[in-house]
Design brief:
With about 575 residues, the protein is α+β, with helices and mostly antiparallel strands. The protein has a domain of about 150 residues: 7 Propeller (Methylamine Dehydrogenase, Chain H), CATH 2.130.10. It contains seven helices and 30 strands.
Length: about 575
């Protein structure tokens, strides 16, 4: 029994019912303290240094939220610049050009070299820099898989960081009614003259709207029932209007006198496109033929161009008058010379890339060899061509029928009119062909576009029987001031040039009178006589009663009639 009492006493002594003083903490207590923070040590207070009084670098007791660990995967691949964006060849040329002796060139040759540099490189080499900063990344094109991976831009960074974007009104400045306008894709029914008069063909009538005064005038109406107006085109001076009809006729009207001057025939089908080049009027027909009319002479038909198998719906002369571009319903674009070659009238270039009818044809005003064309519903592409080399500089999918294209020389942009489904006007930046703005408002497809003489307003005629005026290219005050200064200088130069021109012309005409008493002596050859017996060029006029008469105007080959010059 004694040993059992001893064991119970020993068990009661070893039982830990109360905490042991000065005992080491348990393991779970140590883990909890380490998680909460470092345990205070009685020895740390005695070992303080002089730096303990400084402001702590971080908040005491606040642990770092991110641990610095080695990443398991690399953050991304290295950046390799694009060679074409760096333009190393241009930099090398500019560096080596400094060591070469400077050559003296004539101003004409310098202009030719500058034009070649613009066409080949897209920029002027003389104004290029050896090193330049890259521009900001552009917006990814529509349909791009990853819009964030646009690494660089080939556009040069502008010299000023000022915001250069302009305000483009999204609503039309004015809306005009165009009742009974024909919903025909192949017709050209509107044109804006240099005198700020808009001509609109509404079924069988032609109306003139003055943008300055707002007056409306009905110029003509077809006499036969069922006939309609298929095309209109102003001469450059703005006082004569050419009208194509469904009866295969081309009429020439004097707008000031409201009188038809002449009626030119020769086509076998309706005349759907017209374009002027000085005194030569070119007309395209549904038969696929293009006729050149010399409006100065009685025998007006001077040439026939046969390069299309279907209707010619787009016709434009280049600004310099050297090339004629024609687009047809056969999906072809032909570029014709201004004079026949050894093989006759043969197109210089024929572009076959379009898959639909080509009505939208427009020449670049500042690059005479650049042509823009737009295809119909089956194609829906806008293509930029170099007519000298025949290369397609760019092609963009417009996603709808392209009805018309215009160039803006003020902002180096294009504007195109479209059909279903949005019936919008789109402004494109050249040469990147990036969308600048979309102008919506028409409820039916856009048929034709034309631009005001100042280049600030675009008129769009649509199948919804409305004519909308968009002020999308209005100049800012700085550009307007510079253009006004240039126009004033031109107005001072032109009268002086005209005076010298007529003075030389009069002296040249009067020289035979000083050399002989007779006007046409028989001793002189007939070709040297100032007034020979050969039939001279004349203009065919028609009075209000409709009877035709010849009015002879003494001209020399290649000269415009003096009566027309005096009217302009």
């Amino acid at each position: 029994m004694a040993q059992f009492v001893f064991e119970s006493d020993l068990h009661s002594l070893l039982q830990l019912d109360a905490p042991i003083p000065n005992a080491p903490p348990a393991r779970w207590q140590r883990k909890a303290r380490e998680a909460a923070g470092p345990a205070p040590s009685p020895m740390r207070a005695a070992n303080r240094s002089h730096s303990a009084g400084r402001t702590p670098g971080r908040t005491p007791g606040k642990s770092s939220s991110k641990a610095q660990t080695t990443p398991s995967k690399p953050g991304g691949d290295r950046y390799i610049p694009h060679r074409s964006a760096s333009q190393m060849e241009v930099a090398s040329f500019l560096l080596s050009k400094e060591n070469q002796p400077e050559e003296s060139h004539t101003p004409t040759k310098k202009e030719h070299q500058k034009a070649w540099a613009l066409n080949l490189n897209g920029f002027d080499v003389e104004e290029a820099k050896i090193l330049r900063l890259s521009g900001k990344p552009q917006n990814a094109p529509e349909g791009y898989q990853n819009r964030l991976k646009v690494l660089y831009s080939q556009k040069a960074t502008p010299g000023s960081t000022r915001k250069t974007c302009r305000y483009i009104p999204s609503l039309p400045d004015r809306i005009l009614d165009a009742p009974e306008i024909r919903n025909d894709y192949y017709l050209n029914l509107v044109d804006w003259s240099s005198g700020n008069v808009l001509a609109v063909a509404l079924d069988n009538s032609v109306y003139l709207w003055s943008a300055s005064s707002g007056d409306i005038l009905q110029l003509l109406q077809m006499e036969q029932p069922g006939e309609y107006i298929s095309s209109v085109a102003w001469i450059k001076e703005g006082n004569y209007l050419a009208v194509g009809t469904s009866s295969a006729e081309v009429q020439l009207w004097d707008v000031q006198q409201q009188k038809r001057l002449r009626n030119m025939t020769g086509h076998s089908a309706r005349v759907s496109s017209l374009c002027w080049n000085s005194y030569i009027l070119s007309s395209g027909s549904r038969s696929g033929h293009i006729h050149h009319h010399d409006v100065r002479v009685a025998e007006h038909h001077v040439a026939t161009l046969s390069g299309h198998s279907q209707e010619v719906c787009g016709l434009r002369w280049a600004p310099d008058g050297r090339h004629l571009a024609s687009g047809g319903n056969d999906n072809l674009v032909n570029v014709w010379p201004s004079a026949p070659g050894e093989g006759g009238w043969v197109p210089l270039q024929t572009f076959t890339q379009h898959q639909g009818a080509v009505k939208a044809v427009a020449w670049c005003p500042w690059q005479s060899n650049v042509l823009a064309t737009g295809g119909g519903t089956s194609d829906r592409h806008i293509r930029i061509w170099n007519v000298c080399s025949g290369a397609c500089l760019s092609a963009v999918d417009a996603q709808s029928q392209v009805c018309s294209i215009l160039w803006s020389p003020h902002y180096k942009e294009l504007i195109s009119g479209h059909g279903f489904a949005q019936n919008q006007l789109v402004i494109w930046k050249y040469p990147t062909m990036a969308k600048v703005a979309e102008l919506k408002g028409h409820t039916a497809r856009v048929l034709s576009l034309t631009m005001s003489p100042d280049g600030a307003t675009v008129a769009s005629a649509a199948a919804d029987e409305t004519l909308r005026l968009w002020r999308c290219f209005e100049l800012d005050p700085a550009r307007a001031a510079s253009s006004t200064k240039a126009s004033v200088e031109d107005q001072l130069i032109i009268p002086v040039f005209c005076f010298c021109f007529f003075f030389i012309f009069l002296i040249k005409s009067c020289l035979p009178l000083f050399s002989s008493h007779e006007l046409c002596p028989s001793s002189l050859p007939q070709s040297s006589c100032p007034l020979s017996s050969e039939p001279e060029p004349s203009l065919l006029f028609a009075d209000r009663a409709g009877t035709s008469s010849f009015t002879h105007v003494h001209t020399q080959p290649g000269w415009f009639p003096l009566s027309l010059l005096m009217k302009t």
